[in-house]
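Pasting as-is:
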Amino acid sequence: MTNPTEPARTLVPVPAAERPRRVRRTARVLVVDDRDRLLLFGDTDPGLPGSRWWITPGGGVDPGESDLAAAVRELEEETGLAVAPSQMVGPVLVRRVVHGYTDVVLDQEDVFYAVWVPAFEVSDAGHTPEERITMTEHRWWSKDDLAGTGEEIWPAAVLDLWAEAEVRRASAAAGDPAPPPLDGGQVEESTVPA
């Protein structure tokens, strides 16, 4: 869902120095199915034809909304899958990331959760008009697929994040208290450097 207080992206390239900067908080979700595959969406920058990278489902946290509620909502909007908040593991990681695109610079704090679900058919019925333009495909990835790909994955350390989420899932199942999220530091993931 697009936050009504944020200006909509134009998706029209502008000179790098003139790109508007948006600051936001996002909730992202590692979605793992019962075949041990991770769901990622192929994302693009329309201002750079042929660009593509892979991202986890997720999006902006709305005003007054908790990170967990945003993760549950975004998961349903982007995949069609409804889960209970209690099914989420995390937060697993918090990081500051800057995404420089041809039309905007997004400066955001990402909060990552994880959820394990039966295999399901992804629905894009809840995608926003912007997502229908930029998120052009989805794919279920095995760990071997991710380890062997030459494709760009955001975050680059998604395999490490997946492993950490598995540890936290097992710990939660054992009744251990949840540790604080890992600090992912500050990174840049851009098609046009910020």
